[in-house]
Amino acid sequence: MKKLIFLGILIAMTSCSQDQPTVKAAVQDSDLDSLLEIYPDSIPFLLRRGTIRVESGLFSDALADAARAFRLDTTNLDARRLYATALTNKADRTVADINDAQRHFHAIIKKRPKDLKALVGLASTYRLQENYETTFKYVNEALRVDPKYRDAYVLKGSTYLIMGNTRLAKSSYETAVQQDPEFFEAYIMLGSLYQAENDPICIQYYTTAKQLRPNDMDAIYALAYAKQLFGKIEEAKELYRAMAGDTTDYFIQRGLFHQGYIHQFGEKNLDSAIYFYNSALLTNPMYVESWYNLGLCYADQKDKTRALQSFGKALKYGRQQEYEQEFLDEIEKEAAKNK
């Protein structure tokens, strides 16, 4: 029955060739898996799903789609470009993968000299090889084709960062958001760069990112921490409360931990701090920072037994600080005296 439904859809939206249906606007991205069950050799469907997977960071999956499409038609430059892009970005890429991708991008550019994605893709392979001069050569070639091409400025920015030139990195990311004012990732990057320089303007960039994606927890966390860092404590606490109400353990525990941190170091309210650290530990019993700060709270309250237990957990899960070791040494000396 499911296949019959999709066959009905295909009659309305595909070309006359049933072997190679054409992707039209009516095709929903969520339908692609089912469509590819019916048409496993459809290059348009393979390329569409592969592109979605690249955009979602699923590069190994995208590589499988691109490789199949390219095997089906080795003259298809879009398939070749998608394959090279996935090859360059997959987590376990090797030197051979980078060289292979570079060869594919060169072949594409030879036939399509103004292919912006291929030019920037080729530039990225040289960046991975730490050949920055050639990286900029192809980035600038892409910008000669289209001076407003956002991804070229993004690659410039990331390359400058690797080279240690923060000023030009910021300039490149600024230009990227000028070309695409809804470019979420660039606002996050600019926020982090200004935050690293202890510049409160980072709050503006994180705020814009959150406005673009109001429910994105990465943006909420970045904004909350920046507000905490620059003294907007009540606003930070409100954002941390939102994190603590999330469904993802990581953000729950971070939201609780930071509320504890503010109560401990900012407001000197140890009882509240202890409550939030313990709440974070209910989510993640191996949360080292919570154990460590909990130990500090108990030490300040002169509760040596609980402090020792908390520091012991911090040691067990991988953290030891000078203060902590001094406290443990003091406990051991007292224990030796009482023998």
Overall pLDDT metric: 88
Rg over CA atoms: 27 Å
As residue ranges, the low-confidence spans are: 1-26
Helix content: over 70%
Order of helices and strands: HHHHHHHHHHHHHHHHHHH
Helix count equals: 19
**What is the count of β-strands?**
0
> Strand share of the residues?
under 5%
- The class by helix and strand makeup works out as mainly alpha
Coarse shape = elongated
Work out the oligomeric state of the chains in this entry: single chain
Taking the sheet with the most strands, its summary is:
none
Q: What is the first-to-last residue Cα distance?
A: 80 Å
Account of the 3D structure:
With 339 residues, the chain is mainly α. The chain contains 19 helices and no strands. The longest helix has 18 residues, at 249-266. It is elongated and about 75 Å long. 39% of the residues are buried.
Secondary structure layout plus pairing:
Layout: H1 2-13, H2 32-38, H3 43-55, H4 59-72, H5 77-89, H6 95-111, H7 116-128, H8 132-145, H9 150-163, H10 166-179, H11 184-196, H12 202-212, H13 217-229, H14 233-244, H15 249-266, H16 270-283, H17 288-300, H18 304-316, H19 322-337
Helix pairs in contact: 2-3, 3-4, 3-5, 4-5, 5-6, 5-7, 6-7, 7-8, 7-9, 8-9, 9-10, 10-11, 11-12, 12-13, 13-14, 13-15, 14-15, 15-16, 16-17, 17-18
